[in-house]
């Protein structure tokens, strides 16, 4: 039951992020939406790592762990690109 | 028109979410299928660490973690290539700078603890690196233009440290005839610790430098755009 709650929260986060990503135009909102989608996927992976009575599967844990750091750095790169785009198009 | 479009998109995504929830429910009902966990636990005594997540990250899937550090490096190089950093924030008031003086050493200490504990309990290079990066973010928010990072030359060394140590260890194991990144069992723990230490420093530096958001300003580098 807790797994359904946690994994389901992941699914809902993913859906909310996908909706915001498709509907809103500003780059920053799209970026936040993508991050929320990513968080949903991480939630889901962690939730399904433990099934039944067995100890949790370390492989999805490791995937999420590295995924978080990679997502942060990719977001930083996207933000830097967005700022540069704004500087170049709006600054003159 | 736009309103109608967003409503239609909302309806489709709601249907998608309900379908995914149903799939999740049936998947959970089916119980655990074949998975990699058993293999991961079975091989654990040969890896030199007793935390299965660390074993997956640095022993079984070492290649993958190496490439992830490469992704971090590539992202920061991308950020640096987009221009010089903006000047940053005003110096903080007494209370904030007092808090930063207290919190930053604690973050560094906790990072070191997490790095060491990763061998046998939840922890490791990524968590420790994230804490170091957070320390940099806090310092920049409090007005430190460089986020506590050293000059650009030292930063270059620090951000490649993770990938460099990883590759050097891989080449050393290759030279010993073990194959790339397959550690000799007696040395395994120390090699993993060495890689993790370098990765922690590299991840922390990369995240803090990414937060600064541009190439560090330096006399040697002229021709920044801003």
Quick structural summary:
Chain A is mainly alpha-helical.
Give an overview of the whole structure:
The complex is a heterodimer of chains A (92) and B (226). With 92 residues, chain A is mainly alpha-helical. Chain A is 85% helix and 0% strand. Chain B has 226 residues and is an all-alpha fold. Chain B has two domains: 1-31; 39-212, no CATH class. Chain B has eight helices and no strands. In chain B, helix 3 (52-60) packs across helix 4 (62-81) and helix 4 runs parallel beside helix 8 (188-212). The radius of gyration of chain B is 22 Å and the shape is globular.
Order of helices and strands of chain A: HHH
State Rg of chain B.
Answer: 22 Å
Oligomer: heterodimer
Beginning-to-end CA distance, first to last residue of chain A: 57 Å
The proportion of residues forming helix of chain B, as a percent range, comes to: 55-70%
Helix content of chain A: over 70%
Mean pLDDT of chain A: 88
Pairing-aware structural class of the strands and helices of chain B?
A: mainly alpha
